[in-house]
Amino acid sequence: MKFYLAPMEGITGHIYRRHFHELYKGVDKYFTPFIATNQTFKLKNREKREIDPKINEGMYVVPQLLTNNAQQFIWYAREIKKLGYNEINLNVGCPSGTVVSKHKGAGMLLDLEQFDSFLDQIYTELSEKLTISVKTRLGIENFDDLDRITEIYNKYPLNELIVHPRTRKDFYKNSPDFNAFRNVCEKANMDIGYNGDIKTSDDIIKIINDYNDYNVNSIMIGRGILTNPLMLENYYENKPHNNIDCDRLKEFVSRLFADYVSDYTACSDAINRMKELWFYILEPFDNCKEIHKEMKKIKKAKDKEVYESAINNLFEILREIEK
Ligand SMILES: Cc1cc2nc3c(=O)[nH]c(=O)nc-3n(C[C@H](O)[C@H](O)[C@H](O)COP(=O)(O)O)c2cc1C
């Protein structure tokens, strides 16, 4: 089984990926947060940095595109290929209202004929040796179109279909629908990846065991790794999933913060970026009053000193818990 770090806009950018890769093991592929194509046919500086081969050196990085325009997909894909990437991922999952209303992300599933013709155009015109994987939801309001969606994917030589078995309507609520996932596994003719709510080694083992008879070759993990970056090592080394290794975590968040501070003009932006990550890291400690208190301080922090003092206190508490 291969493990992928899910693309997460605003969190798993190049800084997160680099430090994660230097400090933690277990991820085979890293997906960039989506790059939205546009008619200027120009990569923004921020996007260029995200896929700069030097910045991503030593990691298998897959740039992800968000678009419903075949010509734009083709232009961006060629630019990305020129940089040395051999795989591109198409986002057919983003549930955000502004994205879906433009028939992008999960919104591509609103008009399946149009979606089919989009895939047809990119596969007809992109003659370069470039593999395309898709990260997809399985419907808009319900799973009624599931068979048709799978049929469409089956028409094209996709490298891999990474399935997040929720509808657009679900956003990230409700549980992933395993009947819908099994249905895709039964009918799809390509490699399949699973994504959604994998938080512990037991969740991983369940996917491996339950879909042993199908082409499920990868598991993509987002929030589980944000919560505990040690998650895959815990799985490989048979350690409890709440093993966090405070020293390494402290090193990780310190490096991230230092790089965000130098990346942003305002320190408060770097703090905001960290707050988002702390929300996930501290989720398992929701019932711990002392942690709540420090979390509140982090939420209010506007300058480096206040933020760092709260972090130091947090690690003292986490170390006590670790004992
Ligand atoms: C804050 C946030 C940002 C996300 N950004 C992206 C993105 O850029 N591209 C994408 O395909 N999915 C994105 N996702 C979805 C995740 O990649 C993943 O499919 C989702 O979190 C479910 O997996 P998980 O339960 O392992 O986290 C995002 C999710 C969240 C919560």
Automatic annotation (TrEMBL):
FMN binds at Q64, K135, H164, G222, R223. The keyword Translocase does not apply. It is an enzyme of class 1 (oxidoreductase). One of its GO terms (molecular function) is flavin adenine dinucleotide binding. Catalyzes the synthesis of 5,6-dihydrouridine (D), a modified base found in the D-loop of most tRNAs, via the reduction of the C5-C6 double bond in target uridines. Belongs to the dus family. This is tRNA-dihydrouridine synthase.
